[in-house]
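Lecture 7 notes: from sequence to structure.
We start with the chain below.
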Amino acid sequence: MTTVEEIEKELRVIVAYAYYSEDLTQAQIAKRIGTTRIRINRLLQQCRESGLVQVSINSDFTACAELEFRLEQAHGLDRAVVVPTPCSTDDIHKTIGEAAGNHITTILKEGQALGLGWATSTAPSSSRKNVISTQ
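Predicted structure tokens for the same chain:
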């Protein structure tokens, strides 16, 4: 005999498979099984919380992204930028400068510019649009 708990577990598996393996939207899954998108969202959350679904991001930058989010949450930041440590210590300033330049480019609006004092870490950022380094 099938219990309500077994039926719910099977439903979570069906929903998770449809969402993660078949790339169906939550609305499409809800329509398909005759429920609401909100219920599908809750079922997917239960799948992650129970360990039925585990998300793995395979990238060299995963640790940086995770640290960025933790820093933002811990310190109430709008945005944190973390870069991987370069292989060579000679590239540290360049890596930081390029990341700073990329970030500044995303936050400056049309017609805005930013002036920076010339330094080892800021030099690479000066190659970005609207970033002006002065010596």
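Points to note: The domain at 4-50 is CATH 1.10.10.10 (Arc Repressor Mutant, subunit A). The longest strand covers residues 114-117.
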